[in-house]
């Protein structure tokens, strides 16, 4: 690891970067390299300068140079982080495995390592690393918040709530912490929390802070069954972001129609792979996490979380600028490189599943069903279907990051309802095209008739039905999804018709 002198240099460079003095930092490091061309620390720090400047590819080359001179774990950590940012998860995984071998990181570096572990689906590792970061610096608000999130992922809600309460008391304008706290509140908590949040009403907020602030209020009012105010603040939360995204529902409709047309017209030759993964796909808030947990009760299946690999590998193989657009589609259907690219997905899924069949619940993999089945003809894909009113309201009351292009549909009720139609058309097409590989699972039927529905589900996935699949809520496995609280509860019908709580506040023509 870095010695005291090297740590001091790193701190100085970081201060320059914080002050936007990139040129000064660059000049200082270049001068030092002229004196000693073998100074690996300078190459490492130059990579951080280039990362700050937005040149990640140059930063990776500099880190590789540093690593060639000195095999420091911190260099592997930095490379893992950059590869995650680029979406090259297989490369990130290699360097992550090397970085995690040390116990001599700073609080900030352990925090980074925990974040990478979460992105790669190693949730138990992430909790250990986040606890190590917290023990080294309990006064860092972001590290405290990240630990609370880890606790929530592992179902340790009391520990998370305690940490969040402390955090919002010390840092009242840490709005993300307020949101996470609001998710966990009881009725009594909600009444008190609303008062704290209202005291912040006149404070200046960025657009993202407005989104989080209003959403926190909405969740608390929902705890109180005050659906009028809940809807008001959900709407304000969405409005804070919607105008900045320029999402066009008509463009998404055109994209999905083109995908169906190309799927009908252009056959992709299948590989001879015997890999037989299970995928659970669907609109967010349609029951994908529930089905994944039910399936993962099988002794033959291992959940691997929501892997982003499929979309990213197809994007890289087609050299496309975006993961969902017509240009990417045109290239993908004409490219023989897709199946080769997806082979690295198989390697990662097999690594995470430990010799069992893998179950991936990245919901948006429904866009890529043709390519998945070309690469893995034995794959089974479960497509969730949920009543459009309930699904639309569930998406409207969920806070999504504006950084995620997949969720840009979710900021107006009209766009959500349109997206639901597009999704339904897509999966109906794929179910007709691949009756042996694609299965449409109704959420409502599943929670109403759990035994016969899970028997059909298991049979489709070539799994022997196990009665304990219905006691999934007793499984303490980590869950990083929006349903992390719900899947700790027994199967129930409570959410069917929940949209009616908001019916009087919705435009009369929308939900007819």
Automatic annotation (TrEMBL):
InterPro entries: P-loop_NTPase, TPR-like_helical_dom_sf, TPR_rpt, TPST-like. TPR repeats lie at residues 40-73. PROSITE patterns: TPR (PS50005). Keywords: TPR repeat, Transferase. Coiled coil: none annotated. This is Sulfotransferase. The lineage of its organism: Bacteria, Pseudomonadati, Pseudomonadota, Gammaproteobacteria, Alteromonadales.
